[in-house]
Amino acid sequence: MKKRKDIITVAIDSPAAAGAGTQAKMIAEEYNLLYLDTGKIYRYIGNLKLENSKKFSHKLVKNKIKTLNIKKLKQKKLLFDKVAVSASIISRDKIIRKIVKNFQIICAYNPPEKYSGSVLDGRDITSVIMKDAMFKFYITANLKIRAKRRFLEYKKLNKKVRFSEVLKSLKNRDYLDKKRKYSPLKKTQDSILINTSKLSKKACFNKIKAIMDKKLKINGNI
Description:
Layout: E1 8-13, H1 20-31, E2 34-37, H2 38-51, H3 58-66, H4 81-90, H5 94-109, E3 117-122, H6 125-129, E4 135-140, H7 143-156, H8 163-179, E5 192-195, H9 201-219
Parallel strand pairs: 1-3, 1-4, 2-3, 4-5
Helix pairs in contact: 1-9, 2-4, 3-5, 4-8, 7-8
């Protein structure tokens, strides 16, 4: 695949509900980058399996991903907990990861010309998908704080769920993401650690922006 030259590439890894998605969107808006929530791709496939349990296959996944429009990843049903659990299981499949990887790499290194680059967040972006990204961040937060954030998100969606259930689900997802055989969630040595436990969204973004602006100025991008 031909890669666009001189583009800004940002790779972000994080456990669920750490605030990576919010920061990635803010980064995308600030620097005019294509944003891809890679976790939503696995949620999309996870939901595909839930809705097509008998017909689900690698061929079906390949065909769906080949014609996937990023807008489809914004469906509210992809936020449901059962879809998240299905996604964590699906993500352990080596063949599915390979199919998704190809789609992610195209988005990362060959975004539409109207964008100045790309920002991807997920579980294996810094370690597998964008090893040579200009910026690599590992965003995390305390488990209970993450659970509270997710619980409040569900409340806004008028979904009836107990905090204890959300906490248990996130703990399970952390285990599945970090212990899976292929592309487990981990912080790479060259990733910058950002802990959002005690940071507001704006404070976190300002911290990331300061890091990015310094390097971009040195490289002559700004």
